[in-house]
From TrEMBL:
One Gene Ontology term from the biological process aspect of the record: methylation
Ranges of residues in domain 23S rRNA (guanine(745)-N(1))-methyltransferase N-terminal: 4-39
Chain coiled-coil ranges: none
Residues noted as binding Zn(2+) in the record, renumbered to the chain: 6, 9, 22, 26
Annotated Methyltransferase type domain residues: 85-170
Protein name: Methyltransferase domain-containing protein
UniProt cross-references to InterPro entries, sorted A to Z: Methyltransf_11, Methyltransf_Superfamily, RlmA_N, rRNA_m1G-MeTrfase_A_prd, SAM-dependent_MTases_sf
Residue sites binding S-adenosyl-L-methionine per the record: 65, 91-92, 177
Any Pfam family matching the protein: Methyltransf_11
Keywords for the protein's UniProt record, in alphabetical order: Metal-binding, Methyltransferase, S-adenosyl-L-methionine, Transferase, Zinc
Amino acid sequence: MIPFLCPVCGLPLTLNQSVYQCEKRHSYDLSRFHYVNLIRSSKKIHGDNVEMVKARTRFLRSQAYQPLKAKLTELIQAENPSAVLDSGCGEGYYTELCETLENCECFGVDLSKEALKQAGRSCPSVRFAAASVFELPLPDHSLDLIWSCFAPLALRENARVLKDQGKLIVVGPGPRHLWDLKKVIYDTPYLNPQETLSSPDFELIDEQTLSYTIQLDTAQQIQDLFTMTPYYYKTSIQDKQKLEALSQLSTEVEFNLRTFQKKSA
Ligand SMILES: C[S@@+](CC[C@H](N)C(=O)[O-])C[C@H]1O[C@@H](n2cnc3c(N)ncnc32)[C@H](O)[C@@H]1O
Ligand SMILES: [Zn+2]
């Protein structure tokens, strides 16, 4: 069994009666929400707050992104992995696909304890830790596959914990993602720039695009989707008001699913 590592000394942690402990007796409680807090830094770092988590949970429950979840599940099942991580798992919407993987050790890591409270409820077979994706509490060369959906990417750290030839699936917005929503807010919307990910540790082996139209039927749904986007923080009050006036919106969504393979040492 792959252990979590102690954030203080790096030794493996063993779980005994809801307490993770290393040989040096550093200990961490497994919370009643089924995650352990292994955040290493003493700095005040945190992931998404309660409002962001609530908005995303409500929106994802509407199943608007179910086709993306199905596509990601298909890609991951095809790898037949025995150890996986959802990196920046949020409240576990995509982590839920772990329930379809047989004989596989599954992990979820996120900085947001609010998000993990939700994730722990919906994915009982997954081990969750509050930690940074840049300092994963997992051993070197332990995982077959990592996925990262709309979360910060830590390529170096991912390469450390993946086995040679291990896979990293990165899901992000395609050029036309939320095009019709952007048309409401901006006079001249722009296509999302497509970042090239180059890393000495990985090579790109597959790239797929998924696009379809979603229909939002309430003002709440529109606001929830907007809250999930980076535009929420960058948009002026006047432009936000244009969206608040709507109670229905049909918008194109477009996702990019890129698979990278870790190069052998
Ligand atoms: C846009 S959300 C995506 C969540 C989930 N993957 C999904 O698609 O539903 C980004 C997530 O990354 C988390 N996050 C941000 N910085 C992080 C870091 N350095 N380490 C771990 N998680 C981080 C946030 O707390 C948030 O849950
Ligand atoms: Zn320790």
